[in-house]
Write a structure and sequence with these properties.
mainly alpha, 4 helices, elongated
Length: 119
């Protein structure tokens, strides 16, 4: 398994975890933190601490995802070929063969303009 494949798997896993953490949060203050609070009358573990954990985990996963994506660029196997484009080299002329012309099928259209108008 190549290094790039390992990075790709890590990127997919981190992206999935980031989606899960974001979906657990509720922008109006509900979500997971309100279920631990018991509707605001009773606190089990503290609502503020749950919100802080979800917020910190979101930022951590987002930063990790960005770093993995940037580092994976280094791990891409380029096959030993030059990274420069052949289109930018003025000395190189790439010619492609033209496709063979196919003859159009013969049609038996013997209608005159008077016939096509219904006269």
């Amino acid at each position: 398994m190549s290094t790039f494949t390992i990075f790709l798997i890590l990127i997919v896993v981190v992206a999935f975890l980031l989606v899960v953490v974001i979906m657990v949060q509720n922008p109006k203050g509900g979500g997971l933190s309100s279920s631990f609070g018991g509707g605001g009358t009773q606190q089990l573990g503290g609502v503020k601490k749950t919100t802080d954990f979800l917020d910190k985990s979101t930022w951590t996963l987002a930063t990790l995802l960005l770093v993995l994506i940037l580092i994976s660029n280094v791990a891409i196997d380029r096959g030993g070929a030059s990274a420069d484009s052949k289109a930018l080299d003025p000395d190189t002329q790439v010619t492609q063969p033209l496709p063979e012309a196919t003859p159009l099928p013969a049609t038996n259209n013997t209608a005159t303009p008077a016939d096509s108008t219904g006269n």
